[in-house]
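Hi all, posting the design record for the shared folder.

TITLE: backbone redesign
STEP: 1 of 1
STRUCTURE INPUT:
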């Protein structure tokens, strides 16, 4: 690591023009679509606005930038690295640069109480799978095993006929705002702990609750579309919907184990989709771990189609 140094700084301390040019010159994955460094700069600024980075890690050699990654703290103990990052200078010392950066990230995590870090590779395809495989080796060797292989699924609503399905007598769909927090979290926990979502099953209870709270209290949550399915006064299902540019994203969706296999999850999800269409939303999206065959098949049956693939690697102190 001769002459290789690591700098940890804040976003507002960056030379954004330098970083954007560096990423453009060494672009991989989602950055390949950028036509120039200004396009990269706009992308970085947009991501920073939506997911503010807590710390930036930059490797340099003899004063020249050769590696870069941003870390966004999602909650007290959970953080996420920028997608397809670290970006490193194409050279014969790429692995050395990545190892330095990721060691710095993990040292920072331990010092600041972060116990889980997620690294996501979105839009993985045959056009970039070689780049992903190279990055995956770096992450695995630094304690970030592959956790999930997710399908990002979408439904275009403008010309879509949404099936109408009624809810049985005694059950109702109500606004999320009316839900009792303890009952809602209990339903969420039971729904996921009895399911096949590897992200949830890999977390400890503190991390699970923090992720639940982050989604529930997100400033982008759509209170009109987010709802609970109730049997009398008991919450038996839920949907958290987050608003994005030109789409509504079903961020959390589940149903208690005893209520599965009765068409209730499909009826609830159809209600969400139909409400989104009535509100003028052009597209609804949802993500699912591809080993979760029951959820994947449900979403396909409702009308969602696979749009892209996202692979997740995680480091977990626990």
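Okay, here is what came back for every position:
SEQUENCE:
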């Amino acid at each position: 690591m001769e002459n290789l140094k690591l700098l940890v700084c804040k976003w507002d301390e960056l030379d954004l023009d330098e970083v954007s040019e560096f990423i453009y010159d060494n672009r991989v994955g989602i950055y390949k679509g950028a036509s120039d460094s200004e396009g990269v700069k706009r992308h970085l600024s947009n991501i920073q606005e939506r997911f503010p980075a807590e710390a930036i890690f930059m490797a340099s050699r003899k004063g020249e930038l050769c590696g870069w990654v941003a870390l966004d703290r999602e909650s007290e103990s959970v953080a996420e690295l920028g997608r397809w990052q670290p970006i490193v200078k194409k050279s014969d010392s790429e692995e050395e640069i990545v190892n330095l950066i990721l060691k710095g990230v993990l040292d920072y995590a331990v010092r600041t109480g972060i116990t889980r870090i997620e690294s996501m590779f979105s839009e993985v395809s045959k056009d970039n799978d070689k780049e992903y495989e190279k990055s995956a080796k770096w992450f695995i060797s630094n304690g970030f095993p592959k956790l999930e292989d997710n399908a990002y699924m979408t439904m275009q609503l403008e010309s879509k006929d949404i099936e109408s399905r009624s809810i049985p007598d005694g059950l109702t769909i109500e606004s999320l705002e009316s839900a009792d927090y303890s009952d809602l979290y209990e339903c969420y926990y039971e729904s996921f702990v009895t399911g096949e979502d590897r992200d949830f099953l890999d977390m400890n209870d503190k991390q699970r609750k923090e992720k639940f709270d982050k989604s529930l209290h997100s400033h982008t949550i759509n209170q009109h579309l987010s709802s609970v399915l109730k049997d009398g006064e008991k919450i038996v299902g839920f949907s958290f919907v987050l608003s994005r540019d030109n789409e509504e994203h079903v961020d959390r969706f589940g149903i208690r184990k005893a209520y599965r296999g009765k068409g209730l999850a499909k009826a609830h999800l159809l209600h969400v989709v139909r409400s989104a269409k009535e509100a003028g939303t052009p597209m609804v999206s949802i993500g699912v771990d591809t080993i979760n065959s029951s959820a994947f098949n449900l979403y396909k049956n409702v009308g969602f189609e696979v749009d892209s693939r996202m692979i997740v690697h995680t480091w977990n102190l626990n």
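COMMENT: The mean pLDDT is 95.
Let me know if anyone wants the other runs.
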